[in-house]
Amino acid sequence: MNGRVAIVTGGTRGMGRAISVDLAQKGVTVCAVYRSDEKSAKETEDVLKAIEPESFVLQGDVSSQKAANTIVEKVYEKLGRVDILVNNAGIFDFCYIEDMTEEYLDRIMAVNFKSQLFMIKAVLPHMKECKYGRIVNAASISGHFADCGLVGYGASKASVEMLTKIGAGELGPYGITVNAYAPGIIDTDMTHEMICERGDEQVRDMCLQKFGTPEDAASLVGFLASEDAGYITGEIVGVDGGMFKVQNAYLAHVRASEETNKTL
């Protein structure tokens, strides 16, 4: 991946920072896009430059097509190419149907879904010219498993899944792959409150009985953005510890614990 150039939206915090760092460690020059947290942006830029000196951060709100175009053009002017796009930017919030406002729905769809579409449209001319591209979108386990209070979030991520599959079909002729990573519960600032409130209940539904780390997601994204994933497209790949894959997953851990105690 040496010499490749990547744009990572939401790339200076949580999963986004881990993805940016992982790509830089693989030899990719990274532009990590952030919206407002300048402290995290500066810290991330320092880390990235220590690994890959040409990497940098860029402020922008990717929920508008104009801003997305500006971000991509700045990267292209500075580095001369865009090979990889990681659409990581997103927001997470509970809101029940009866409490949902038009403004809330517009915002969550704009950040979680429309921003990904806008960024794909912005990078497409450059990727088509090179007949090469790796696009990796942030989906979610909530895009296909319903959860009360998450109709807005779930709908936005289900839209990302459809964007990914159709994008794979439409962009395949140009040598561009489109895939998505679908995190379960990754322990970041965005999910910390939820983990504190009902984490003990949720972890019982996971085969691995633990929450994920930002680095778990970054490892998957790094693979999907690599040459090794050149024949993989249109896939929604979970990184969720086996959440909801089987009922009563915790029972296997109870049994394993009992076996261990007997051995001791």
Q: How would you describe this protein?
A:
With 264 residues, the chain is of the alpha/beta class. Helix content is 48%, strand content 14%. The chain contains 8 helices and 7 strands, in the order βαβαβαβαβαβααβα. The longest helix has 29 residues. The chain is globular. The model has no long low-confidence stretch (mean pLDDT 95).
Structure, briefly:
This protein has 264 residues and is α/β, with parallel strands linked by helices. The chain has helices at 14-25, 38-51, 65-79, 102-130, 151-171, 192-203, 214-224, 250-263; strands at residues 5-9, 29-34, 56-59, 84-87, 133-138, 176-183, 236-239. Helices cover 48% and strands 14% of the residues.
SSE blueprint and pairings:
Blueprint: E1 5-9, H1 14-25, E2 29-34, H2 38-51, E3 56-59, H3 65-79, E4 84-87, H4 102-130, E5 133-138, H5 151-171, E6 176-183, H6 192-203, H7 214-224, E7 236-239, H8 250-263
Parallel strand pairs: 1-2, 1-4, 2-3, 4-5, 5-6, 6-7
Helix pairs in contact: 1-2, 1-7, 3-4, 4-5
